[in-house]
């Protein structure tokens, strides 16, 4: 049975008012896309594109990676239907990203319903910050896959999930290529183009556009251009007639950077602000489906579009956002008349409240009457003491606070005793919180899709696609 899917909109969905100008896509860009129906459409002639993207992650990273891909598919379908122009959804795999600490692990729900973490390996602190397209999965991927298989619940879908991931996450594959392959296997048949932006062909097409960002100085004093140097991927800042890397202090002239662009284009990459402008230069993009952070910073990229000689800025639109709510969580919510938002609290807070509600009515009434009486009588005593001697008011207030604290301590101990008696309820609430707000964060930002695909299989992807299509008005 598929879990209940609850939409949690990031922002109102406002779409581009009209189409841009369709155009053909550079063959080098097309060559960097994984083969499938989406790439065939991208290569068929003049088109437009709805794009999204994400840095690679272990086992495709968190759920929202999949949500981004499905959002691009649904939005492209809606706009194509409205404008009668071929519109292709494209997922830009940002393999240039070098944040290995973010990409080297995945969170899932284990057999007991608790968040568990599988880690590929750690990168030594002094290691060069190489991009993820240069970072192989390595032999550790075998143990990571075995860990995921051993710790997730047994189901009829587990073998399918492990096979899906193992086909992509191979020891010799880079993390970037593995993530692209897994995403393509899951969503490519739906028309999503999975673009390996780190592939040499794409880097060759992007390099001239990246160089156009060199004259731009951002508020931090650096350009939006990065080059791979001795310490890995490194920001450049202008220094007289040359450019110097931030960490290694290496110096590159403009001529040297142009040589790198021509002969080693894979060494150049845009920063997070320049990337969408380069994307718009390479693809006829009319909209980019992004999350809250992207919607916040994309407007800051406006000067970089101008630096790229007037490349038109694509409209930023929100991606779909949602929560998967399984039957056990739903039963708990219904039984105690709770909302999903009430699970988003400090550990133990909701449990204590629910247990407190199980206090015998007479006990709860006695505690309430005690608190009310303490407040009332001490207020009267404080007023009378102040009339006799103003310095005594503080003494009475201190005594009142101590008495109220004593009453609260009685209630706390009663609740603690009830917690022990209601251990099952406490565990149920903790598991529900772990499923919906693991580690105190939204589910979609933590848990890998594999955590749910193990339980529900490929039908879950179909159900999500239908929900995202409804949200986009494309169903």
How would you describe this structure to a colleague?
This protein is of the alpha/beta class. It folds into two domains: 4-225 and 254-320 and 444-472, no CATH class; 327-436, no CATH class. It has helices spanning 27-31, 37-42, 63-83, 100-103, 140-151, 158-168, 175-187, 200-211, 254-263, 274-282, 292-297, 302-307, 327-335, 349-356, 361-388, 392-421, 423-436, 449-456, 459-472, and strands at 4-7, 48-54, 87-93, 105-109, 115-119, 193-196, 225-229, 232-239, 242-245, 251-253, 268-270, 285-290, 315-318, 322-325. It has a five-stranded parallel sheet, sandwiched between helices. Strands 10-9-8-7-11 form a five-stranded antiparallel sheet. A hairpin with a 5-residue loop joins strand 4 and strand 5. Helix 8 (200-211) packs across helix 10, helix 14 (349-356) runs antiparallel to helix 17 and helix 15 packs antiparallel against helix 16 (392-421). The model has no long low-confidence stretch (mean pLDDT 91).
């Amino acid at each position: 049975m598929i879990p209940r899917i609850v939409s949690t909109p990031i922002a109102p969905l406002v779409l581009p008012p009209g189409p841009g100008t369709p155009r053909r896509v550079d063959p080098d860009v097309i060559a960097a896309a994984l083969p499938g129906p989406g790439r065939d459409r991208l290569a068929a002639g003049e088109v437009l594109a709805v794009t999204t993207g994400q840095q690679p992650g272990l086992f495709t990273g968190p759920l929202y990676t999949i949500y981004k891909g499905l959002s691009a598919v649904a939005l492209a379908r809606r706009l194509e239907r409205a404008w009668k122009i071929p519109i292709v959804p494209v997922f830009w795999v940002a393999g240039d990203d070098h944040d290995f600490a973010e990409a080297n692990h995945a969170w899932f729900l284990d057999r007991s319903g608790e968040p568990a973490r599988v880690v590929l390996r750690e990168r030594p602190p002094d290691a060069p910050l190489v991009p993820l397209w240069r970072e192989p999965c390595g032999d550790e991927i075998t143990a990571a896959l075995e860990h995921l298989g051993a710790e997730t619940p047994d189901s009829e879908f587990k073998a399918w999930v492990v096979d899906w991931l193992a086909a992509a996450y191979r020891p010799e594959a880079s993390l970037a290529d593995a993530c692209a392959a897994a995403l393509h296997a899951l969503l490519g048949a739906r028309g999503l183009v999975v673009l390996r932006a780190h592939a040499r062909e794409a880097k060759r097409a992007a390099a001239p556009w990246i160089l156009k960002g060199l004259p731009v100085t951002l508020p931090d004093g650096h350009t939006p251009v990065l080059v791979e140097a001795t310490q890995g991927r490194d920001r450049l800042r202008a220094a007289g007639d040359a450019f110097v890397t931030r960490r290694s202090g290496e110096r590159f002239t403009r001529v040297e950077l142009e040589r790198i662009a021509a002969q080693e284009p894979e060494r150049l990459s845009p920063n997070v602000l320049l990337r969408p402008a380069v994307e718009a230069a390479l693809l006829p993009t009319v909209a980019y489906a992004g999350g809250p952070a992207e919607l916040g910073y994309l407007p800051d990229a406006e000067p970089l579009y101008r630096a790229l000689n007037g490349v038109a800025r694509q409209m930023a639109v929100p991606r779909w956002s949602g929560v998967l709510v399984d039957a056990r969580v739903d039963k708990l919510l219904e039984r105690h008349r709770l909302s999903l938002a009430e699970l988003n609290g400090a550990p133990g807070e909701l449990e204590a409240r629910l247990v407190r509600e199980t206090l015998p009515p007479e006990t709860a009434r006695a505690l309430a009457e005690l608190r009310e009486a303490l407040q009332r009588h001490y207020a009267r005593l404080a007023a009378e003491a102040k009339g006799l001697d103003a310095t005594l008011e503080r003494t009475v207030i201190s005594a009142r606070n101590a008495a109220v604290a004593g009453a609260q301590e009685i209630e706390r101990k009663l609740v603690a005793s009830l917690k022990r008696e209601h251990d099952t309820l406490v565990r149920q609430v903790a598991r529900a919180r772990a499923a919906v707000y693991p580690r105190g964060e939204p589910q979609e930002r933590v848990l890998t899709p594999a955590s749910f695909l193990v339980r529900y299989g490929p039908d879950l992807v179909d159900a999500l696609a239908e929900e995202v299509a409804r949200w986009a008005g494309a169903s």
